[in-house]
Amino acid sequence: MQQQVLERMLPQAEELAAADQAQLEVAVQRLEAAKAELASAQDTVDLISGMVHSSSTLLATIREQLQRQQVETEPAQVPSATVAENNARTRGRPAQLTVAGAIRALLRERGEATYGEITAYIQQVRPDVKIKNTSPELSRLVKRGELVRPRVGSYRLSGD
After folding, report:
1. CB atoms < 10 A from the CB of 133, how many?
2. Do 88 and 133 touch, CB atoms closer than 8 A?
3. What SS3 string covers 81-144?
4. What is the C-alpha separation between 116 and 131, in angstroms, rounded?
5. pLDDT tens digit sequence for 90-138
6. Do residues 95 and 66 both lie within one domain?
7. Strand 154-157 to strand 112-114: parallel, antiparallel, or no bridges (unpaired)?
8. Do 10 and 22 fall within a single domain?
9. Could you tell me if 57 and 120 lie in one domain?
10. Pair 9, 28 in one domain
11. How far is the C-alpha of 56 from the C-alpha of 38, rounded, in Å?
12. Final residue of a domain: which of 15, 41, 73?
């Protein structure tokens, strides 16, 4: 009698197994399609991310070039406070503005400046100074806590 029950159940179990197998195949196909769509979306994200990086770099370069040209075309002006500081230090003798003093004066006026803007300003107010001396001076001022670097290549007075 048990064999008869099992024989009646066999077609139902076969039908259930076939239906489950068909559902599995549909689910696998959907998963493969989703993986392909995800890979395509990731490729698009990677491509657009590269485009954003390139355009942002281009924009920053153009802005820096414009700022450099603006600094080069503006007449060099040493703030009167800096001149007064130098006169007090030299007791009225003609004195040249130090590189550190020129950097501080520029940053007092502008608030923030790039390395290129600072070197252009130093060339204007101290044409006798070699520009390669500007970088160590900036590093020394940062180390002493007088300047901060809010971004790579940009400087501002630490109190600002």
Report:
1. 13
2. no
3. HHHHHHHHHHCCCCCCCCHHHHHHHHHHHHCEEEHHHHHHHHHHHCCCCCHHHHHHHHHHHHHC
4. 10
5. 444 445 678 898 899 999 998 999 999 999 999 988 888 888 888 999 9
6. no
7. antiparallel
8. yes
9. no
10. yes
11. 26
12. 73
| pLDDT tens per residue across span 131-156 | 888 899 999 999 999 999 998 889 99
Coil/strand/helix, residue 156? strand
Q: Are 23 and 31 in contact (CB under 8 A)?
A: no
Residue with tokens 């803007």: 117
For residue 15, the model assigns a pLDDT of 93
| pLDDT tens column, 38-95 | 777 777 766 676 677 677 777 877 887 887 777 666 555 555 555 555 555 444 444 5
On whether both 63 and 81 belong to a single domain, the answer is: no
State the helix-helix crossing angle for 99-110 and 134-143, rounded to 10 degrees: 70
Tokens of 103: 């950097």
Say which residue the tokens 């029950």 belong to: 5
Instruction: Choose one of 73, 88, 113: the last residue of a domain.
Output: 73
The parent domain of residue 91 ranges over 76-157
